[in-house]
Amino acid sequence: MRGLLRKKWLIILIGALILIAAVVFGAFPGSPLNKTLKPVGGIAAPIQRVVKSAGNTLSDFWAAITDGIAIRNENEELRAEIAELQYQLTQSEEALIRYEELQDAFHIRDTFSNYDIYGASVLSREADEWFSVIRIALGNTDGIMLEAGDSYAVVDVRMNLIGRVIEIDTNESKILPLTHEGFVVSGKVNAVNGAGVTITGDASLKNDGLCLVTGIDPDVILEEGTEIVTSGDGGLFPQGIPIGTIESVDYSDPLNITATLRPYTDIADLNDVFVMVPFSVIEEQTELRESGNLTPTYESEVSEESGS
Amino acid sequence: MNRGPLIRKILVYAVYVLLIASFQVTFPKVISFGGQVADLMLVFTVLAGYLFGFKDGAVIGIAMGILRDYYASPPITGIDGKPVVTCAIGLLVLFLAGTVGASFFTVKMNRNVLFAFAAVAFLTLCYKIAGHLAFFLWHRLALGTTYNLTFGDIILHSILPQLLLNLVAAVPLILLLKFAGPYKKGINTALIDEEKGGEQLWLTI
User: Are residues A164 and A143 in the same domain?
Assistant: First the structure.
């Protein structure tokens, strides 16, 4: 036995076989193997936070040195802008009062009024082109759960779509980014009765930060710069979340017109994101929790069709 | 091994593994080029294996692989079309990188710092080719869809930038391992004794 263990090729072979078995077994939905890495977070998560904090401090310090003159100029410009904005604010306050009166009168609802927004900081980003899950600091302890079949839209501070939640743990969640080839969302041209399209991640476009647009009606003329928003079909994502703009359109095959879309958000630049959870889901989960029927951890099992 | 050097080795490796893994997933933009991110975890694992032997390569590969899976596990599209977060692909990749890296060109010559670059290049190529091949086969055979990357895309936008970045990243990591690494003077003396004693030379190049 000791002799066998001295043979490196045998160790590599056995190790590789065990790990391949773990990969296959772990790919089954609800596999307990996926939970085995949780204890690693006890050490890895705090250290990563320290690294992040140190990096940000260093970056801020460097910026403080290099940006001094630029900041002074910007400050003067901003003072002038503040004066202008104060005037506009006075005008807007009056307009707001009139809008609220009209809103009550015509029963207008805000676009995302049915959703609660949870803010979270980005913990880690992709390690390379394949290891691309994004971790954010939002978990079960924040009162957010994910039931089988559900998924939540993740947006940036300007409400632009970034991706969707695919797994929620105790203290953190995993996000499938918009550019990943497993991501599918129904969209439409941002206009009244705008044409519907399907936006997916694509292996060949991912490195350029682009998405693929398919399902384009041959009668529809898509132009460069056209804004695409979520259509709300499928019910998981609300209608009207900005996704990005059309970068190019390929009409060479009339039966399969495709386009590329440049998302508004560059994930590499993000520090904070927002998860949109429908109030109906929160109420349902609260009721289940109170009745003791809700366990703290769920994994999403969302089909491509329902990813919209 | 005496207790002191062993504790030093464990501590140094633990610090480097945690810091390097954290840095790669926290500030990928700082170390990216052409849509690719310098794979510090892979490079460090290969170098630890190549410079300090099989056991170090295997252990560092496992530790780094666990962190890679924890921080940024790859979501793959399952047979049913649902994206699934996997749990051991990073572990598999880096275990193999560490162990194969430990056996790279070590038969006919000593573990040479210059050849460490060749080991990094060779294992980066292996990783990228195997990754693309696995995704191509998965899309073609299991999902019945097409893998949209052309051969040119793979070479120009995936393999070449990654190769370049990893070779550049190897420079500071080699210096780190040689001059502030887990062994005094950057040499694993146990490895020298072992190789003089006729280590199993299974990979003959």
Answer: yes
